[in-house]
Design a protein that fits this description.
Order of helices and strands: EEHEHEHEHEHEEEHHHHHHHEEH
Largest sheet: 7 strands, mixed
Strand order of the largest sheet: 1-2-9-6-5-3-4
Radius of gyration: 20 Å
Helix content: 40-55%
Mean pLDDT: 91
Length: about 350
């Protein structure tokens, strides 16, 4: 698979599809001014490979993955390691882990000495397809997800699909939610491609996975190039996320995986779109079937917050405006719309759609 370029205001970087060992020469050249921030579980599984990759003088710090660890304490540990190991303004942070690790390392890089370089090595499907691309970094706050952060682009992203060999099945499925979202944004052809390939992907077909992964990343790279700081077009990438973030906040970070919450958010966004933007109900049904194929939930867990409580939580999402709630909806596959001040009754109806049966 060939590489993908991502253009941004200050230049560009490359999404490199290659074994992680190809980074060795680049990191050796930086020697002691490298700090690798590694997910503890990834370190346990790939200790030897990572040790041979890093320069002898390079340092590393281990952090926990998962949204429960996406907080100021974890960020402080990264800053402390930068100070302890003398990472200078020309240094490099290397994020090795899932989306949480990548987001935290990116934010640490954005703020350490007012901004240093960082390189992404995403090890989960969700991180490879979404969070490692585009330069959004940050941590959670008790008031909401990703409320503290910065736009800070990586110098490159290296995607080694062999990391997925040890990825738990549930986490792999969570990554598929972002691929479904990308297909809904891209258009009918891309959605049909994901529908056709999803069974093979879930059966372990790596070639099929590469095809939809490339489709998703290419879409995001194009949108990021047009709107790096989410002043307009990039907002469409939040399809399903305002609903999903409210789920994560109200259930407690870590109760559902991010991708699981996004999948539920896609269903809710489709239902809301039917009332607001005329989306055909058949598309929501197709999304539901895809979630089932990808072993993702289509209803909230038992004893979840009621719809009114989830509606209130949406007002704390970082995409809310001072004038009201902003939602990304669909007119059809490939035709997203950004809607302001959607009536509460339509949002409540969307939440009701994914509530568990009493």
């Amino acid at each position: 698979m060939s590489d993908i370029r991502v253009e941004h205001q200050a230049g560009s970087y490359t999404i490199i599809f290659a074994p992680v060992a190809t980074l060795e020469d680049r990191l050796q050249a930086l020697a002691g001014n490298v700090l690798a921030v590694v997910d503890r579980r990834v370190h346990e599984l790939y200790r030897e490979q990572l040790a041979s990759l890093m320069p002898q003088e390079a340092k590393q710090v281990l952090v926990d993955g998962g949204d429960a660890a996406k907080n100021l304490d974890s960020l402080q540990a990264i800053w402390d390691a930068c100070a302890e190991h003398g990472i200078r303004r020309d240094g490099l942070l290397v994020a090795v882990g899932g989306g949480v690790v990548g987001d935290m390392v990116g934010f640490a890089a954005a703020t350490w000495m007012r901004g240093i370089d960082f390189l992404q090595v995403p090890t989960t499907l969700l991180a490879q397809v979404d969070s490692s691309v585009g330069g959004k970094t940050g941590i959670n706050h008790t008031a909401g997800k990703n409320l503290i952060g910065a736009f800070h682009q990586p110098v490159d992203v290296l995607i080694d699909l062999s990391f997925l060999d040890t990825l738990p099945r549930r986490e792999f499925s969570a990554g598929m939610a972002e691929i479904i979202k990308a297909a809904l944004l891209a258009g009918e052809d891309e959605l049909k491609q994901v529908e056709a390939l999803a069974p093979a992907i879930m059966a372990g077909d790596r070639d099929a996975l590469e095809k939809v992964l490339r489709m998703s990343i290419t879409l995001k790279a194009r949108i990021v190039a047009a709107d790096e700081r989410e002043a307009g077009q990039r907002a469409v990438l939040n399809l399903g996320h305002t609903f999903g973030h409210a789920i994560e906040r109200e259930l407690g970070y870590g109760s559902l995986l991010h991708g699981e919450a996004v999948g539920l958010g896609l269903l809710a966004a489709c239902r809301c779109s039917e009332a607001v933007s005329g989306l055909a109900p058949a598309l929501r049904q197709r999304v539901g079937r895809l979630l089932e194929t990808c072993q993702l939930p289509a209803v909230l867990p038992a004893a979840s917050p009621v719809s009114e409580q989830l509606l209130d939580a949406m007002g704390l999402d970082k995409k809310a405006l001072s004038s009201g709630l902003r939602l990304v909806l669909l007119e059809a596959a490939g035709k997203p719309v950004v809607a302001d001040d959607v009536a509460s009754e339509h949002i409540l109806a969307a939440w009701d759609t994914i509530q568990p049966t009493p």
